[in-house]
Amino acid sequence: MTMLSLRLARKHAATPQIAAFEFVAAEGGELPAFDAGAHVDFHLADGCVRSYSLCNDPAERHRYCFGVLREANSRGGSIAMHALQEGDVVQVSAPQNHFPLVAGEQHVLLAGGIGVTPIWSMAQQLHRQGQRFVMHYAARSRDSAAFVPELQAMPWAEHLHTHWDDGAEEQRLNLTALLAAPQPGQQLYVCGPQGLIEATRAKARALGWPDARVHFELFGATVAPQSGDQPFTVIVASSGQRVDVAADQTPLQALLAAGVNVPMACEQGVCGTCLTRVIDGVPEHRDQYLTPDEQAANDQFTPCCSRSRTGTLTLDL
Q1: Taking a C-beta distance cutoff of 8 angstroms, is the pair 188, 214 a contact?
Q2: Least trusted range by pLDDT, from 92-106, 224-238, 292-306
Q3: Can you state the percent helix, strand and coil of the chain, rounding each to 5?
Q4: CA nearest 191: which of 305, 274, 97, 263?
Q5: Per-residue pLDDT band at 264 (split at 50, 70, 90)
Q6: Is residue 155 over pLDDT 90?
Q7: Which of 56, 213, 291, 316 falls between 20 and 30 A from 152, CA-CA?
Q8: Per-residue pLDDT tens for 186-213?
Q9: For residue 92, with 0-12 CB atoms within 10 Å meaning exposed, 13-18 middle and 19 or more buried, which class applies?
Q10: Domains in the chain, please, with CATH?
Q11: Is 173 left (phi over 0), alpha (psi -120 to 50) or beta?
């Protein structure tokens, strides 16, 4: 994996809980290009790796910008990010993109809370390319929403619609109205809390949106043992090592404890960093990353959250 050294050039509070970051190349010069929807993996203290979406215009090569929510139940990533000070140097992966813009005649962008970061980047790219789009931004309140002044100052601000849960009824997010009567060539993108994404996908399907035109990226998902979970054994194909996975343990936890190196980031089944090829056995998919067709193929799975339907699962590790 290509790694980059970035220096934190500017940091400020976008809201009481969200910090805005502007990084530049530690040694100066241009940064690798990226497309809207891309993220980088930050390698933080104590081996913590977390993915954060770029929010600036992909035309900019002199900086990478991010917004990071200080999570109430942080597993270390947001705490480490919020602890960074201007001048600090961090190691990150080159930009990767699992949430790209696709060809379409009109684009509907929907952001919930901190999910605004990749959506803002998309709006900037679409405007620069002269494409038709509309952006909807929903949050619990105006005070909890990051980057509102910056968004309202954009040259495309007439395409921006904000929705605050504590505001007047007529301005609150109405998915039925927003998604009604999908037109040919329309593409829908949604990023934010899991509940918003699930509600948007369900409403879009009910209103006739083809699944192929509904694109989404989660910032987090629930990973917890389920009733009836059974232990199983992972076989590491490269060495033949057998690793027992307890009923209340993820395969990733068991593999790491056994000294098997597995790339990881979110540990919640949403980023795809730990995606591993399955050589033998049948996985039980619990991720939010693979499509239904990819899950049905049963030739890869995410060990951070998924399990096995068979007593053993042989992995390409």
Answers
A1: yes
A2: 224-238
A3: 20, 30, 45
A4: 97
A5: confident
A6: yes
A7: 213
A8: 999 999 988 899 999 999 999 999 999 9
A9: buried
A10: 3-93 (2.40.30.10), 106-218 (3.40.50.80), 232-315 (3.10.20.30)
A11: beta
Please report the sign of the dihedral spanned by the C-alpha atoms of residue 293, residue 297, residue 298, residue 301.
negative
Alpha-carbon distances of 108 from 135, 178, 194, 239, rounded to whole Å: 6, 9, 18, 48
Nearest to 127 by CA among 153, 95, 147, 92: 153
SS3 at position 168: coil
CA atoms within a 13 Å half-sphere pointing along the CA-CB vector of 15: 20
**Tokens for 281?**
């056995």
> In terms of Cα–Cα distance, which of 185, 182, 165, 166 is closest to 174?
165
Dihedral of CA 130/133/134/140: which sign? negative
Q: What are phi and psi of 52, to 5 degrees?
A: -135, 140
> If you average pLDDT over residues 250-279, what whole number do you get?
86
